Recover the amino acids of this structure.
């Protein structure tokens, strides 16, 4: 059983999950992804694969993301997407 | 002298207006699907505007489609060295109408509607010229109403209706054209049924794809390979419907078909219901990555006959539904060479449409051409002269020669101008060579030279 509200939320772990989800969507072995990696400018993520990215993230964190609450700036980088997950109390 | 690139524009005028004498005012409002599909319920959507500054500058493609008597509305003045280069190639360019101001996140039409001086210039063309947008949405209807310049083509409501992928699937079924197994979903209840069918396909080891009815070509797709993912998206769509109380949908569920080659063909529907087949092109991929379109497509006579026959019946059907103008159809070949003649109907201009002028004017008979985009890392806005110097002799110097024409230069600087830092740019090129082999070798050298420019900028 998870007690997310009481647990110390490990931001680094969320960042790692976001990185795993990004790598899964890109389906490229050679790509280097860090917390600072910019999702659109550097990796070319767009409206086509963002939905897939969110679904991978839902799988990994066992959460449900409401896409209506997401805005452009949340997709700035791996770090901003991890912060969104934390702000929403999803992890 | 009559240039060889005039025929398509003349034919377009006759198709739309019944006369080849009326000048056209072109508007490159790319990704018009965003306007058509704005209130349609497809796959969950995330409000991303990052790429639209690039898409909106694709307006410059219209420059090379219009004839010398026509007009082109642009969001910004083209690079003067690029214009001079095009003129030096002997291309007779149209009159330019530039918007008073531009917002990178607005289409050219939206900027035009916010440009009093341009609106006044357009109003002076009322009764003289006719508007030809990339695709007709309510924005282009508003521009026609504001300026009094007639809209050549069908009303926005007709264009929207015939551009839905649900419509494509229905008429392909009605006309007996081969297509993948699939189901249209206009309600959540229809989705429930389609999901059951999709589950069976997945259990049989097949792959499934969900498509937004109004997704832009190649976007708004979700490829699904396992039941867990299917259940996940099914629940998401249910949850949205339950929360809003709106059970409408505009989605397709289809089997993902193995393909070896993507095709794109175009025809024009005339006012009298006649249909003219314009061309078929083949998508070029390298390692699964889309690189552009090659022409001519290497089809057998049997494959070509299927494509032409499909164009004829689709055109006649669209005419019946009140559509008039250019139609591009995405099609494909399966691994056995069988044709899937209708994957998607785009009742609007297409990337390929904007290559016709160059083909007619610059490609010698029997030669090959390749239209593709090259990515560039742009630190600060670049001048056309920098690209010209980098390409050297690979830049086309005249009709009858081999080389590349820069088809759109504004997309190189679109994102760097819209943002605050280094950004990705796109250079759209049109390569011409005697053989397909020489074409691919030239492509590779151009990619290397452009990458070197980027490295130079970085240092």
């Amino acid at each position: 059983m998870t007690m997310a509200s009481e647990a110390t939320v490990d931001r680094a772990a969320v960042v790692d999950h976001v990185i795993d989800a990004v790598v899964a969507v890109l389906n490229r072995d050679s790509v280097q992804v860090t917390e600072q990696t910019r999702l659109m400018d550097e990796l070319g993520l767009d409206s086509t694969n963002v939905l897939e990215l969110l679904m991978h993230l839902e799988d990994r964190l066992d959460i449900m993301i409401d896409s209506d609450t997401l805005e452009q700036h949340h997709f700035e980088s791996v770090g901003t997407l991890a912060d969104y997950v934390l702000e929403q109390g999803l992890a | 002298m009559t240039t060889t690139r005039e025929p398509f524009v003349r034919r377009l005028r006759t198709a739309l207006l019944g006369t080849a004498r009326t000048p056209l005012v072109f508007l490159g409002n790319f990704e018009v699907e965003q306007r058509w599909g704005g209130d349609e319920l497809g796959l969950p959507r995330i409000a991303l505007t990052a790429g639209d500054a690039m898409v909106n500058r694709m307006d410059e493609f219209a420059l090379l489609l219009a004839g010398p008597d026509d007009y082109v509305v642009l969001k910004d003045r083209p690079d003067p060295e690029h214009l001079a280069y095009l003129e030096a190639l002997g291309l007779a360019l149209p009159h330019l109408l530039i918007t008073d101001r531009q917002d990178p996140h607005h289409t050219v039409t939206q900027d035009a509607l916010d440009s009093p001086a341009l609106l006044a210039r357009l109003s002076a063309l009322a009764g003289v010229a006719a508007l030809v947008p990339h695709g007709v949405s309510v924005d282009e209807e508003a521009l026609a109403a504001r300026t009094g310049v007639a809209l050549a083509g069908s009303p926005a409501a007709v264009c929207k209706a015939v551009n839905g992928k649900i419509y494509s699937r229905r008429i392909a079924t009605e006309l007996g054209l081969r297509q993948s197994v699939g189901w249209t979903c206009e309600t959540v209840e229809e989705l429930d049924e389609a999901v059951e069918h999709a589950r069976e396909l997945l259990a049989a080891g097949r792959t499934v794809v969900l498509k937004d009815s109004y997704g832009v070509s190649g976007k708004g797709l979700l490829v699904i390979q396992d039941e867990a993912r299917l259940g996940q998206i099914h629940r998401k769509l249910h949850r949205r419907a339950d929360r809003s109380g709106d059970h409408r949908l505009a989605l397709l569920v289809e089997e993902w078909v193995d393909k070896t080659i993507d095709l794109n063909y175009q025809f024009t529907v005339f006012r009298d219901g006649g249909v003219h087949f314009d061309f078929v092109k083949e998508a070029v991929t390298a390692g699964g990555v889309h690189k552009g379109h090659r022409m001519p497509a290497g089809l057998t006579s049997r494959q070509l006959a299927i494509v032409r026959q499909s164009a004829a019946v689709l055109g006649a059907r669209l005419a019946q539904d009140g559509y008039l103008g250019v139609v591009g159809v995405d099609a494909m070949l399966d691994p056995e060479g069988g044709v899937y003649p209708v994957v998607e109907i785009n009742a609007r201009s297409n990337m390929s449409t904007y290559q016709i002028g160059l083909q007619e004017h610059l490609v010698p008979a029997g030669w090959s051409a390749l239209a593709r985009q090259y990515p560039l890392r742009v630190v600060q806005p670049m001048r056309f002269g920098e690209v010209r110097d980098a390409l050297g002799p690979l830049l086309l110097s005249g009709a009858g020669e081999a080389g590349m024409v820069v088809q759109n230069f504004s997309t190189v600087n679109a994102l760097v101008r819209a943002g605050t830092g280094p950004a990705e740019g796109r250079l759209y090129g049109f390569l011409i060579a005697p053989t397909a082999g020489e074409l691919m070798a030239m492509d590779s050298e151009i990619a290397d030279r452009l990458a070197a420019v980027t490295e130079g900028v970085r240092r």
Chain B touches chain A through 24 residues (CB under 8 Å). The longest helix of chain B spans residues 436-458. The two ends of chain B are 48 Å apart (CA to CA). The CA atoms of residues 60 and 408 of chain B lie 6 Å apart.
